[in-house]
Amino acid sequence: MSVLGGMSGPFSRRGHADCERCVRQVEVTMPWPGWGKLRRVWLVLIFFLVASSPLYLADMHGLLPAALMLVAAIGPLNALAGIRPTCLDCGAVIEPPVGSPTG
Ligand SMILES: [Zn+2]
User: Which domain does 72 fall in, by range?
Assistant: First the structure.
């Protein structure tokens, strides 16, 4: 067990996969598959936030900071959605990223 043990993010799980560097089946950490889905939901949420801005700008002092916090929260969500399954023995990424995490 390496220092990476289970440190690939919240809701990560253990699984088994073939590591190209170790050339054998190893224990890997799997990210929660819902992060990508949650990120898309978040983008839709931000779209509706921008679309409904005339409504909440009437109470700007209360709702604008809350809206900006919601928009800023896409950053950690992007990072979580970009986590790839990682080998627990050598730390190699098991699956190469398909496209960019922002795509
Ligand atoms: Zn490995």
Answer: 13-87
